[in-house]
Amino acid sequence: MHAMTRQLVTALVAIALAVPFSGQLAGQQAKTSVLILPAIGSAPETGLQFGGLVMQVKRPVTGRPSINQAYVLFTAKHQFQLTLEHDGWTTGDTWRHYAKIDLLDFPMPYFGIGADAPEAAEEWFTARTEQVLGKVQRRLAGAWYGMAVARVVHTAIRDAEPGGAVAAGTLRGFEGGTLVQPGVGAMYDTRDDVIGTERGRFLEASFAVADRALGSDFGTNRTLIDGRAYRRIGPGVVATQAYVELNSGAPSFDQMSLVGSSRVLRGYTKGRYRDRALAAAQVEWRAPIAGKWRYALFGGVGAIGSSPSDLGSVTLPTYGAGIRFRPIKGERSSLRLDYARGRDGSSGLYIAIDEAF
């Protein structure tokens, strides 16, 4: 069976299996919904993939819901991923506290640095990564929040292809290392719901610094800007996003901005393009089909470069379509299956939880 067909069948089986495992636990002060989803898949670099997801949504009578997730994945080639995520809001949405822990032992491609990295330069390595990301946000006035953020990443690089650029030891961070990056930022948030947003605006901007004096092996600054807008039109929703990621100083090659994920610039293998600066814009139309089923059409464009002034020399288009299934009655949380295409015939099939943005 072709790899794309196999992944599509796997996604539909996973959605079907999720239905009997979803449920709701209602309390006097809050409603708690729980989703348990088996995860099955395959890819050429990993072989068979299997694992599961547990997601809990605790929705108070008023205010934003708190979400807890645990995701684990194993592969036939002894690779592993564990993700624990918490997104909590206090009464009145005064405080938001967010934490995410990732343990990864997975293969990654390397084609070179820059938008002109050739397809023929493809090589693979394995990154064993432990990452902790934390945010604390406090309402300042109206929809504005102040933010403190910190990220700690430890990576060990192994199994680099002999004769390749990673194995040659010429790249910064070719052996891995530790990144310690605290920062500050601000958020503006008028979304009607943090899950499956249909109305409102969102803007989050942060600036983080890594320095050897903080215990980091790399001295690099990181700027993130994520702006979104949502509007209902007839039965559907138009969602737009502008995303910017800038790395200055001396980032390691594995911590540069990477093109290709289930959320930004779908349609490219993650790591196909990497550099210090990334900018992307995308728009998505989301509408119901029948019952718990929905569909989405999306498109966008991105650019990657060594600096903000270098962006735009090569554009990276993306377009595609997907289906959504909402297993929990009364909740907008969904299982997502997207197929996207990009430049030079690249494509990707994505199985994920909730909308891309």
Tell me the name of the CATH homologous superfamily.
Answer: membrane protein fhac: a member of the omp85/tpsb transporter family
Beta-strand share of residues? over 45%
Secondary-structure class: mainly beta
Radius of gyration: 20 Å
Largest sheet: 17 strands, antiparallel
Kindly provide the name of the CATH class. Mainly Beta
- Helix-residue proportion: under 10%
Architecture in CATH?
Beta Barrel
Mean pLDDT: 88
CATH topology: Porin
Short description:
The chain is mostly beta strands and 357 residues long. The protein is 6% helix and 59% strand.
Structural notes for this entry:
The chain is mainly beta and 357 residues long. It has a single domain, classed as Beta Barrel (Porin), CATH 2.40.160. The protein contains two helices and 19 strands. The strands form two sheets. The chain has a 17-stranded antiparallel sheet. A two-stranded antiparallel ribbon has the order 13-14. Strand 15 and strand 16 form a beta hairpin. The chain is globular. The N terminus is likely disordered.
Produce the secondary structure layout:
Elements lengths: L2 H16 L4 E4 L3 E14 L3 E14 L5 E10 L4 E10 L5 E16 L12 E19 L2 E15 L6 H4 L7 E14 L10 E11 L9 E14 L2 E14 L7 E2 L15 E2 L1 E14 L2 E13 L9 E11 L9 E7 L5 E7 L4
Antiparallel strand pairs: 1-2, 2-3, 3-4, 4-5, 5-6, 6-7, 7-8, 8-9, 9-10, 10-11, 11-12, 12-15, 13-14, 15-16, 16-17, 17-18, 18-19
Can you tag this structure with a few keywords?
2 helices; two-stranded antiparallel sheet; mainly beta; 357 residues; disordered N terminus; Porin
